[in-house]
Amino acid sequence: MSDTARPIREGSLEAPTRHPLDWQNPAFYDEKALLTEMERVFDICHGCRRCVSLCNAFPTLFDLVDNSATMEIDGVAKADYWKVAEHCYLCDLCFMTKCPYVPPHGWNIDFPHLMLRAKAVRYRQGGLPLRDRVLTSTEVVGSLAGIPVVAGVVNAVNGNRLARKALDTLVGIDPEAPLPPFTARPLRRRLKRRRGNQARGQEAGRTQGRVALFSTCYVNRNEPHIGEDLVAVFEHNGIPVTLAERERCCGMPKLELGNLDAVAEMKKVNIPQLIRLIDLGWDVVAPVPSCVLMFKQELPLMFPDDPEVARVARHIFDPFEYLWLRHREGRLKTDFKQPLGKVAYHVPCHLRVQNLGLKSRDLLALIPGTTLETIERCSGHNGTYAIKSEYHAASMKIGKPVFNRVAQAQADHFGSDCPMAGHQIANGLDDGRHPEHPMSLLRKAYGI
């Protein structure tokens, strides 16, 4: 390991510091500078290897090093660096939980954002298949697949083995990967009457007691019952719910693709809509952890000087975070009517890195006759990663410890705050059982 590759070591006992993403600087897209920085960081990662169990990016890197002529990073062809970036799905766990060299350490390692930079460079070079561009266009796909006749056809194709093999051959979607169903009655249409709701709520701590629901592409088009369960639970607790007049994708799928310009375009629609509601005294909740993380962390890092982005970050909540804040102030109803028995609860990566604690677990634990098996490990789904033919096997390997824990728990219910992770677990179990979102379980416990 070369002495020149590393700065003088400094101690790092403070909380991690995340630097803004300098994505609007032309130098950000300089491939030569990118590869130089990747070599520096990969050299440090090779000497540490603490993150080997998190995802397939690190084993890919270490195999490249170990199989090289020198068994050091200088023996790895720079053309192979892209293989590492392809396996990073920006879960952020290495930065938040494993790496001892994150800022304020002098080595200044931010592996996920370095991989994001690599994805952005590759995207601008036009090196991505059409499949990836389509899969991350969640609004367009959802709108087309949500047409009544089309929805039935798409769902039938997704469940047909011969059709799935054809998808594998034609576009590289693995035939064994679970694909979400599409609905012709999206959540925003079901809740249309709640737009413009002026009902007042009761403040508690830093919550206003009334929320604007950011429905998310997935819940809106694929599993609207999760949003309906959220509304039922919140209204049972005296929390009025409204919808923004307009809503775009949060931008996380395009971020993971490296299309940062598309993220900026989505931000131009979403932030003014949410600010208008915040100005009227509404808090914001979103039922998918990745979408909350996008507004809480990624957009503020992309637009550090935008005060409206910062305001939205302060006023958006994970739903269970919001309910727990209300519970601390004595504003949560605990009139549970139905015990849940044993629940195998999976904590998604994008929830863990928000540093909220395990609020879904804590709230479900309030239900009499309910015990929880809490699993804090990656399910392997990770956006579109698990459905791509070239990565599906790796995704199942990553998720196997989770599948095993759920199977061993012999629980009455299992699920995750990330509905896609829930289906990945069901796919790994392969026993006919279906996941249940924690909000759906909470509604069941309330008996509403």
Automatic annotation (TrEMBL):
Pfam (any one): CCG
Domain named Cysteine-rich: residues: 211-296, 343-419
One Gene Ontology term of the molecular function aspect: 4 iron, 4 sulfur cluster binding
This protein's record includes keyword Lipoprotein: no
Keywords on record: 4Fe-4S, Iron, Iron-sulfur, Metal-binding, Repeat
InterPro entries linked: Cys_rich_dom
PANTHER family reported in the protein's UniProt record: ANAEROBIC GLYCEROL-3-PHOSPHATE DEHYDROGENASE SUBUNIT C, GLYCOLATE OXIDASE IRON-SULFUR SUBUNIT
Name of this chain's protein: Fe-S oxidoreductase
High-level lineage: Bacteria, Pseudomonadati, Pseudomonadota, Gammaproteobacteria, Candidatus Competibacteraceae
